[in-house]
Design a protein that fits this description.
Length: 166
């Protein structure tokens, strides 16, 4: 076997031995968090919230909306996020596990952070309670959109959406 053939063989064997895995993918798969890249190149980490939203010293400009939704209906809530916001806490609460709502989150640049269900925060309780953290810097300033969808609703279901800017 010639030297260059041996070199090529060693390179091929070496490439097969190295796993082709992204650390970002492994992190998202092996935890309750999701790492999302928006169109402006900012990473957002979405994780179950452990915040106590009733501590009024810890947030800026709470946005609250109470609505009713029916099967197949989508209601969009727009929230203006100011400058210097460290993270968003989003709390969609309908309290009835027999009905199913989803929450889709969009950045001001129009990138979809994700669609979340009752179990996305680690428990099935008629509530989606999440934190949206930028991996570095501040949350993108501008109008964020939160779309609530009646995925499986018997009649109508009332809910409350709170968005806290920390």
């Amino acid at each position: 076997m010639k030297a260059w053939e041996m070199l090529i063989l060693c390179v091929i064997i070496g490439l097969k031995a190295v796993p082709a895995v992204s650390a970002k993918e492994a992190y998202a798969e092996n935890s309750n968090t999701n790492v999302i890249l928006d169109s402006d190149g900012k990473d957002y980490i979405v994780s179950p919230s452990t915040e106590n939203s009733f501590d009024t010293e810890s947030f800026i400009f709470p946005q609250r909306s109470t609505q009713s939704i029916s099967q197949g209906q989508t209601i969009t809530h727009n929230v203006n996020v100011g400058s210097g916001v460290n993270y968003l806490e989003v709390d969609l609460n309908w309290g009835d596990t027999s009905d199913s709502l989803t929450l889709s989150v969009y950045t001001p640049s129009g990138s979809k952070i994700g669609t979340y269900r009752d179990s996305s925060d680690g428990s099935v309780n008629g509530r989606i309670h999440l934190n949206i953290d930028p991996s570095q810097g501040y949350v993108q300033q501008g109008t964020w959109s939160f779309k609530v969808y009646g995925e499986s609703v018997s009649g109508t279901q009332s809910y409350t959406l709170n968005v806290y800017q920390h």
